[in-house]
Amino acid sequence: MAKYIEAFVSNSSIADRRDPAISPLYANLGKWRGRLPPALFTCGTEDPLLDDSVFMSAKWQMAGAEAVLRVYEGAPHGFISFPRQHLEAAGQGLDVTKEFMLEKMG
Fold it and tell me: What are the b/e assignments for 57-93, b being 16+ CB within 10 Å?
């Protein structure tokens, strides 16, 4: 993760990285109570950001908004961008995302 942090926010302190503009995990979502849209959090079990996705979905719900979390066994970070024929979870994730969007757009 250190290489990714350095590439994304080079020369930043830990305090800098806690800015909500860099990491929404540190945002005060309570101030948005009643105004957050429904959200679908999609993550794989092999994603180093899995814990962040679980935490963010819980935070979203605590702010009074709908949050759906889908975790796909064996899927890495960014898996929904993989071709369906190379990773079954990619197709599943895209299908769930499409269904979620269509349902919310009504």
Answer: bebbbebebebebbbbeebeeebbebeeeebebbebb
